[in-house]
Structure formats: C-alpha cells, structure tokens
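Please go through the protein record below and see whether the fold suits the sequence. Record follows.
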Amino acid sequence: MAGSAVAQKQQSLLAELPGTNEIPTERVETLTRAMVTTLHLNESQYVRLREANRVKLTRLDEIQWQTRDNVAQQQAQMLELQSQYEAECGRILSPTQLMALREEQKKDAQPKRDPSMGGIG
C-alpha cells in the first residue's frame, strides 16, 4: 500500500513539472525520419538513432525546465548534452554520415536571413 502511495505522489509531482514528462513520440519520429533522408540510415541505425534522439529530447526538455532561471547553467548543461549526443552518434553512424550530420547542424545553427530585409541602403 505504501509503495502505491509513493508512486501516486511521484506521478502527481511529474504532472506538476512539465519538463520531466516523456517527449511525444511524434517529435522523436519526425526528427529521426528527417535524419533518414539526410543521412541515408539503414534500419539498425534508424532504431538506435531514434532512441538517442528520444533521450536527447527528453533530457533537453528537463534541462530547459530545471535551469529556466539560470541561463549560464542551462547553456553548460546543453553543451554537455550535445557532446554526449555527438558521441552516441559517432557509435551509430559511419564517418561520412557523421560528417553530413555535423554539416546539417551547422546549417541549423546559423540564423536564417530574411531576403526581404535589404542590406545597406
């Protein structure tokens, strides 16, 4: 009986903390499917990368929630998470695929330029 009370209390605590809930499957699937197209993943890579993406997105959500009042700590934890993710990708992907992933991440990191906003003038 006491065990179920603890579990129930943990469930209600999780309901109060939006950053600790499981990431929606669609979000993980969408990200991983996009990587299939870009990186030409095989079935095994897809399955392993989907799990790595699930872990990354879940942890990212947790970090954003837990460190919402401390930007420096949030950035440090996000950099550490990215490093762990890249290490896991290095175990899953071929060197060529890993290079393509890094190139894609560089593109995503660059701010989008609005062509309607002119340069000098």
Remarks:
- The CA atoms of residues 54 and 61 lie 11 Å apart.
- Residues 17-100 form one domain.
